[in-house]
Amino acid sequence: MARRITTHQGHLVRSTQWSGISTGDEVLVDIDRGRQRHWVFVAHVVNSKTGDEWVEVRGGRPGELKGRAFRPEQIFPVGAERKGRLVGPSLLDAPQLPW
Q1: Paired residues of 28 in beta bridges
Q2: Is residue 99 in a domain?
Q3: DSSP-assigned letters across all residues of 40-65
């Protein structure tokens, strides 16, 4: 299992592990536009001053490596897609457990 790395930059706390996933793990993102892309988890970030949190991912269309940030409830495990739709709970609601 990958080692958790947590860094602090001012009020921002970044962690390379969150909800049972680690940097580089594939995830699905629930985007309003209904278009699924290929994403990998980068970090979970919390602003300790405001309590805001988000998940940083990298990817997009095939061949792209765009960096984006989404709310934790928009991040799903890879197996949550059925017939082009996301089903089941997000990683926020149902963390992945180690094998």
Answers
A1: 76
A2: no
A3: EEEEEEEETTT--EEEEEEEESTT--
State how far the alpha carbon of 18 is from the alpha carbons of 1, 25, 26, in Å: 13, 11, 13
The domain that holds 62 is classified in CATH as 2.30.30
At 49, the amino acid letter reads K
Is the pLDDT reported for residue 42 higher than 80? Answer: yes
Beta-bridged to residue 56, according to DSSP, are: 43, 69
Residues of the chain above pLDDT 90, percent? 59
- Mean pLDDT of the region 75-92: 88
Report whether 67 contacts 60 (CB < 8 A): no
Report d(CA 9, CA 69) in Å as an integer. Answer: 17
User: Is 68 inside any structural domain?
Assistant: yes
